Write a sequence for this structure.
């Protein structure tokens, strides 16, 4: 059972908005079985631009019920329902904030028709409710009023249910208020991660890397990222679907891999560092940097030829490092040679490596 909702507010600072109108259509997947529509007295003034957008003004709300007077009805009509809204995070946040003010812990699972439309209706120019309904030929009346927008969302949701032929996309998109499933998945990811030095990648459901982390203890750092409560961390946690990692035996490799991957992949939830790169040659034009490997008997190597970083990799035998033709086959090529050179150069100025082999 679904409770398809739209809420109009006063506008204002985050979590200080008040509800001016609410519409809820209880939908069983086929038809609307109940509905609740009401103006609400927010007990505060509406911002002027909101008045222009919705047509709802302060005078209209003087005799409207206050939120505590409609709260019981909202609880009843949404009981055992998944809340559905176009930009559900907004409507659910507003609703939950109002209940928090009353001291009531309002908790419902949610579905967002913006996210579902992006998944099930590809290549739309815009996923705003107005433009999406126009594109799909959905009848739209009373735009920017709760009843009109909620009813349009009902029609849109019907289309989305039909398009989800395998009945898996919508199920996966549900955000559970108790976070049990998400917490179990995050816990499993943390358990998978070894306590190694390295760089790790958090992937979304499509396999896209959305965050890259690095640490001397990847397990500890992943645990920190997946347990934080900042807005950015919560978005990472919501979208995290799987992890992968590259283990290394030295700090230079971690630094090199981390910044090169940030530059190449541009993950959504990382802050990208801008380096001031100064062109500066090494003391020698052709040499091999040798440092600690991932395990005993292994070395990490970085090959420099003609004053450029060629690539990096690992060796297990000393003779490999002395044969340039073998080294060239072992290393993985680096695309951003300028950034790699800057990173290696600055590292060598401050830190030591096991040895340098000159050719």
């Amino acid at each position: 059972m679904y409770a398809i909702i739209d809420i109009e507010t006063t506008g204002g600072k985050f979590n200080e908005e008040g509800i001016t109108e609410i519409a809820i259509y209880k939908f069983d997947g086929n038809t609307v079985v109940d509905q609740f529509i009401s103006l609400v007295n927010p007990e505060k003034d509406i911002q002027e631009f909101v008045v222009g957008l919705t047509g709802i003004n302060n005078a209209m709300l003087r005799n409207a019920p206050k939120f505590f007077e409609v709260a019981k009805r909202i609880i009843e009509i949404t009981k055992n329902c998944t809340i559905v809204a176009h930009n559900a995070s907004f409507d659910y946040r507003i609703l939950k904030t109002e209940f928090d003010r009353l001291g009531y812990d309002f908790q419902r699972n949610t579905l967002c028709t913006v996210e579902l439309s992006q998944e099930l209706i590809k290549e739309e120019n815009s996923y705003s409710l107005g433009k999406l309904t126009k594109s799909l030929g959905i009848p739209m009346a009373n735009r920017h009023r709760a009843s009109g927008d909620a009813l349009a969302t009902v029609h849109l949701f019907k289309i989305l249910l039909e398009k989800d032929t395998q009945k898996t996309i919508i199920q996966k998109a549900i955000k559970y208020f108790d976070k049990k499933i998400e917490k179990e998945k995050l816990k499993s990811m943390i358990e998978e991660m070894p306590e190694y030095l390295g760089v790790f990648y958090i992937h979304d459901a499509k396999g896209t890397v959305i965050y890259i982390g690095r640490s001397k203890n990847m397990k500890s750092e992943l645990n920190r990222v997946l347990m934080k409560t900042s807005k950015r961390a919560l978005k990472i946690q919501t979208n995290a679907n799987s992890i992968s990692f590259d283990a290394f035996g030295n700090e230079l490799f971690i630094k090199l891999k981390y910044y090169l991957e940030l530059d190449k992949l541009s993950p959504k939830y990382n802050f990208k560092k801008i380096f001031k790169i100064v062109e500066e040659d090494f003391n020698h034009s052709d040499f091999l940097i040798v440092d600690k490997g991932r395990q005993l008997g292994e070395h990490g190597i970085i090959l420099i030829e003609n004053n450029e970083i060629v690539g990096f990799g690992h060796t297990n035998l000393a003779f490999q490092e002395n044969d340039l033709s073998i080294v060239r086959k072992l290393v993985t090529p680096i695309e951003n040679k300028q950034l790699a050179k800057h990173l290696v150069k600055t590292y060598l100025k401050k830190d030591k490596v096991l040895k340098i082999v000159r050719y």
